[in-house]
Write a structure and sequence with these properties.
This protein has 126 residues and is mostly helical. The chain has one domain. It is built from four helices and no strands. It is elongated, with a radius of gyration of 16 Å. The two termini are 21 Å apart. 31% of the residues are buried.
Length: 126
């Protein structure tokens, strides 16, 4: 899972950088996906270890970071969309796209992690 975590970390960093530059470098909140990517990258590097217990700990920390990012991205997208619509305006397309892209990436990541955890548990029971 460490390699998968590093791939998703890079994808989130690229998403954050693209969102930041897409807004004309005006909104630092566009870098939020990048910060989640940095956190996952750091955790992914720490989970590359010969120690099984260390791998388990960091795998669980990483999936928790991913789940918190997923919840935050979805909540932020829904809140921003509802707020813009209540004012009779269109939501910011770049921000909404970046939030939804972050949510999709993290949904896939969390799903892969859960499947990996289930597979590991089943292989230990056999």
């Amino acid at each position: 899972m460490a390699k998968v975590t590093l791939v998703f970390a890079v994808l989130l960093i690229v998403l954050g950088a693209a969102g930041y530059w897409g807004t004309g470098s005006q909104h630092s909140t566009a870098l939020i996906p990048a910060w989640f990517g940095v956190a996952l990258g750091f955790g992914g590097l720490l989970s590359i270890s010969p120690s099984e217990s260390r791998r388990k700990i960091f795998a669980h920390i990483n999936v928790t970071v991913g789940l918190l990012g997923l919840i935050g991205a979805v909540a932020s997208a829904v809140r921003e969309y509802a707020h813009a619509r209540s004012l009779g305006e269109s939501p910011d397309a770049i921000a909404l796209t970046a939030q939804l892209a972050m949510a999709v990436l993290l949904l896939v990541y969390v799903n892969l992690c859960v499947r990996s955890f289930i597979q590991a548990r089943r292989s230990r029971q056999e």
